[in-house]
């Protein structure tokens, strides 16, 4: 089975954490948001009105503040027990965040999790 | 002289435009069969990989409906150019599939010029990890499934990707739960793309669904049961339908009349045994 990367919102991070991922065959996920801050090896992704996610970046990551990006990554624990973050495996830049209607993305996440059979294998 | 020529030109253009609706309407009204399936279905890659094939060489089926052409959007993970074709590996987050686009070396690909791009093999505009919109037919070679692509073009608007996923959901629901309306579940697709989706869904259905749309909920349920229930040539008996749907036999009989009178189903061994009429 090829790798599947469910599209999620920040509130779903916990469900894809390795410790809770029993119900999922995969815990590599996709998140869409705007890069709002970069601090060396970490960054902040703002997901519409759905909150922020801390990104744990690879050294060769080329993110730019203010751009809309789709991030593929694994849910990971943040240092110092600050909750969940996302270890970035890859990212796709989509340019200016104003070109994307984030509400549509929220509906997509909703639809993909409601009608999983055509999107992801859930066991 | 010049004016006359221009007039002719604009008139010609207008005339062509005026003819089109008439032309597209009449076949749509007459073509009610599933046999001549030229539909283009929006799907996810997982749906293609899960598609069933009743017997070798048969058309692939997704949600029990034949698929001729499919449409999906995904990220290009690999591009490999051969002398006769370009093979892309496309990943949309639900699965991964190979897409083969044959290279026509004699003529430039005009489809790529639609959005103002220079004619080319399409390869120059597509890059690894970029998104692509693929339209083609499902093929298989040995045990491997791939897409024989008619068109592979780059995608730049993320809304198009999201709309596609919602569209694929809507069409999946259309085939599994029947046309929208009535007791249609308030699906996730409803909110953002509801109306467009409902309008769109109509286009994918066979003409029978037009007749079906005006019928009661019981009739719709019976129809979808008859469609999806495993059965032999003789169809399903009314009592069986009543039991399966948990609806009184009287109501089933009444709704059955409705379906019979419009000709979407027909009675087989006796008056109470029905099967879906497929042309």
What does this structure look like?
The complex is a heterodimer of chains A (123) and B (279). With 123 residues, chain A is mainly β. Chain A has one domain: Nucleic acid-binding proteins (OB fold (Dihydrolipoamide Acetyltransferase, E2P), Beta Barrel). Chain A has one helix and six strands; from the N terminus they run ββββββα. A five-stranded mixed beta barrel of chain A has the order 2-3-4-6-5. In chain A, a hairpin with a 2-residue loop joins strand 2 (28-39) and strand 3. Chain A is globular. With 279 residues, chain B is of the alpha+beta class. Helices cover 39% and strands 23% of the residues of chain B. In chain B, the strands form three sheets. Chain B has a five-stranded mixed beta barrel. In chain B, a hairpin with a 2-residue loop joins strand 7 and strand 8. In chain B, helix 7 (238-245) packs across helix 8. Residues 1-34, 112-123 and 184-207 of chain B have low confidence and may be disordered. The chains are: A mainly beta (123), B alpha+beta (279). The interface between A and B is medium-sized, with 32 and 32 residues.
Write the layout of secondary structure elements.
The complex is a heterodimer of chains A (123) and B (279).
Chain A: E1 7-8, E2 28-39, E3 42-46, E4 52-56, E5 68-77, E6 84-95, H1 102-114
Parallel strand pairs in A: 1-2, 4-6
Antiparallel strand pairs in A: 2-3, 2-5, 3-4, 5-6
Chain B: H1 2-30, E1 40-42, H2 45-50, E2 61-62, E3 65-66, E4 69-81, E5 85-91, E6 96-102, E7 131-141, E8 144-154, H3 158-177, H4 190-204, H5 208-213, H6 217-228, E9 236-237, H7 238-245, H8 249-262, E10 265-267, E11 273-276
Parallel strand pairs in B: 1-4, 6-8
Antiparallel strand pairs in B: 2-3, 4-5, 4-7, 5-6, 7-8, 9-11, 10-11
Helix pairs in contact in B: 3-4, 6-8, 7-8
What about the largest sheet of chain A? 5 strands, mixed, barrel
Q: What can be said about the biggest beta sheet of chain B?
A: 5 strands, mixed, barrel
Largest interface: A-B, 32 and 32 residues
> Regarding quaternary structure, how should these chains be classified?
heterodimer
What is Rg of chain B?
23 Å
How much is the average pLDDT of chain B? 74
Q: How would you describe the shape of chain A?
A: globular
N→C terminal distance of chain A? 13 Å
CATH topology of chain A: OB fold (Dihydrolipoamide Acetyltransferase, E2P)
Integer count of domains of chain A: 1
Strand order of the largest sheet of chain B: 4-5-6-8-7
The spatial strand order of the largest sheet of chain A comes to 2-3-4-6-5
Please tell me the overall pLDDT of chain A.
88
Give the DSSP E fraction of chain A (strand runs of 2 or more residues).
35-45%
Question: What's the helix-strand series of chain A?
Answer: EEEEEEH
Kindly provide the name of the CATH class of chain A: Mainly Beta
């Amino acid at each position: 089975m090829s790798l599947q990367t469910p599209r999620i919102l920040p509130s779903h991070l916990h469900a894809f954490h390795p410790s809770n991922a029993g119900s999922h065959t995969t815990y590599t996920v996709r998140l869409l948001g705007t890069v709002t801050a970069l601090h060396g090896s970490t960054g902040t992704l703002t997901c519409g009105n759905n909150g922020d996610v801390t990104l744990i970046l690879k050294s060769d990551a080329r993110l730019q503040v203010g751009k809309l990006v789709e991030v593929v990554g694994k849910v990971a624990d943040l240092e110092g027990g600050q909750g969940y973050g996302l270890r970035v495996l890859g990212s796709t830049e989509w340019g200016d965040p104003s070109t994307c209607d984030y509400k549509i993305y929220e509906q997509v996440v909703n639809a993909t999790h409601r009608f999983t059979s055509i999107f992801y294998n859930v066991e | 002289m010049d004016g006359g020529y221009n007039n002719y030109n604009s008139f010609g253009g207008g005339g062509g435009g005026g003819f089109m609706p008439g032309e597209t309407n009449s076949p749509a009204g007459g073509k009610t069969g599933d046999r001549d399936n030229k539909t283009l279905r929006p799907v996810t890659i997982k749906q293609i990989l899960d598609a069933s094939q009743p017997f070798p060489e048969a058309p692939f089926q997704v949600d029990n409906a034949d698929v001729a052409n499919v449409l999906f959007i995904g990220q290009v993970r690999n591009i490999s150019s051969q002398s006769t074709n370009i093979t892309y590996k496309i990943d949309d987050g639900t699965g991964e599939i190979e897409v083969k686009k044959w290279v026509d070396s004699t003529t430039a690909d005009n489809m790529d010029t639609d959005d103002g791009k220079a004619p080319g093999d399409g390869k120059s505009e597509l890059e690894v990890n970029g998104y692509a919109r693929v339209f083609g037919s499902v093929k298989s070679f040995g045990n491997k499934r791939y897409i024989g692509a008619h068109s592979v073009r780059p995608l730049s608007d993320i809304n198009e990707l999201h709309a596609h996923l919602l569209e694929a959901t809507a069409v999946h629901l259309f085939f599994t739960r029947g046309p929208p309306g009535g007791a249609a579940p308030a699906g996730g697709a409803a909110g953002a793309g509801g109306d467009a989706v409902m309008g769109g869904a109509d286009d994918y259905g066979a003409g029978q669904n037009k007749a079906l749309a005006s019928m009661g909920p019981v009739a719709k349920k019976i129809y979808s049961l008859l469609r999806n229930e495993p059965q032999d040539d003789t169809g399903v008996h009314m009592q069986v339908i009543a039991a399966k749907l948990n609806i009184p036999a009287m109501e089933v009989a009444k709704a059955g009349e409705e379906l019979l009178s419009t000709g979407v189903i027909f009675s087989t061994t006796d008056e109470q045994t029905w099967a879906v009429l497929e042309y």
